[in-house]
Structures are given as C-alpha cells and as structure tokens.
Amino acid sequence: MRRCPACQLLLHRCQVGLWLTLIFFAACIAKPSLADERNVIAAAELSGLFQTNTKGLPPSGVYYLLLSKILSETELAQSYQVVVMPMKRAKANFLRGSFACYSPGLETFSQTERDVLPGDLLSSQAFNMALVRVVSTEPHRLVSGVEDVTSKDVVSLVRGIPVSAAMQQMMGKARRTFTVQTELENLKLLMSGRVNLIFAFYPDIVFAYKELGIEAHFPYQANYSPLVIRDNIVCHSKHKQAFDLIEAKIIEYRQNGTLKTLLKDFYLDTLTQP
What we know:
Elements: H1 5-29, H2 34-37, E1 39-44, H3 62-73, E2 80-85, H4 87-95, E3 101-103, H5 111-115, E4 122-123, E5 128-136, E6 154-158, H6 165-173, E7 176-180, H7 183-192, E8 197-202, H8 204-212, E9 227-231, E10 234-235, H9 240-256, H10 258-263
Parallel strand pairs: 1-2, 1-3, 6-7, 6-8
Antiparallel strand pairs: 3-10, 4-10, 5-8, 5-9
Helix pairs in contact: 7-8
C-alpha cells in the first residue's frame, strides 16, 4: 500500500520517538547500582589471601575477609568496596588514581613503579608479614645465603613477585630459572623434581600446601629470608578519613588478637615463622 509523503514522515517520527523512549528506559534500568559507585579498594589476587571465585560466588581469602570486616565495622562499606583483580591491573589503576586504595601494599611495587607514586601516599601499619623462603628438596642442603647457590641448581619462582638483590644474584648463579603463574604451580614443579629450589612466598604458599593436602612443608633455612615485606593497605591522600578508620582497626585487631584469629595459618609475625 502506498502512503503519502506526509504520512510517511509522521510515521518515521513516531518510530524515532518510540526508540528514544525505549533507550531512555533501558538506560534507567541499566544505571549502575550503589555498589558500583563505591570507591574501590583494589586487592591484588593472591592464593588464599585475595581470591576470585567461579560460578558467581563472591571473592574469598583471609585478607579479603579482613578488609571486608573492617569496612563493615566502620560503616565504610556504604562508600568503599574491596574488588579482587590481577595484581598488574590493580597496581596500574591505582597508579593512575582510578582506585582509592590498594592492598597488599606499597612493597609489592617495583622501584620504577614507586618512582611515579604520589609523595603524599598514605601507608598503613602492617596487618601481616610476607617473606620469601628458599625451599629445597634436600633437607641436608639448605640455603642460608647467595653463596649456597651453585651452577648445579635449578630455581623457580612466581612471575611478577618482588625480587630482591639477593634473589637476583642467586638466579644469576643457578643453571636455570623457571617462572610460573602461581605458588601452586611453583610447589608442583618442586615436587616433580624439575627444580631443586624454589623461591616461595609465605604465607601465599600455605594455600598451595592445603590444596594438595600436604601437611609437612618442604625444608628451608628457618632463620634466612632473601626478601621480607609488610602486607598492608595504601590509599591516596584524598581518602584520608577512610584510611584513618581502616588503620585504627588494623591496630585494634593486632592488639586484641583478632588479626591472628582471622588470618589463622596465614598469620606471620616474626622471621622464624612458619
């Protein structure tokens, strides 16, 4: 059926108006929820500490539970949320100022990354320690320093972890160095015999032992660690009010034993642990 030009124009305008109305309502429905508008505390994904889960389950890990408890008790949960993501993304967006805070803290940044961080960055007291152990397959041959590593050794470590000068020197002396994605892969490589030494981050590797159902840990020199860092939270200065409340809770939890209770086997307080 033919239509007159005026009728066709009117019909076209009605169709356009209908589409605009539908788009408007769709935008209203798709408007971000309050949760999406909250400030982000970026949590770098670490096994057993900050973990994402599949099948739509919420994140987990002892550090995630710790920070979530703090946000809940201080009522900061109304305006801040802990979001677990890969470390590279977490650090990059925090450096750009897109995220309010970052954990597990400043000492996971390389020197190059630290050079571009703002000078007024807020850094809390530590809620836990993290340290590297040089784990061996041979109980009679434990590494106590750079001099104990030779060209006969094969080493592995998790890609992207902080590396100290001592660790660099050990890798330089070893015959070969492998890099893996997780501490679970690191431990499996040691068990396979393909390497005889691994740089294992505690408490992260505790989760790997649990996953594999292994109670007795491989040996290491208990009084030596080539790298020790403080796990904490850092925030941009404009979030000082929230930062002060978070740090006050960390101090309170350390004093009343809540930290040790929450972190369980992942809690490290001195160089002689675990």
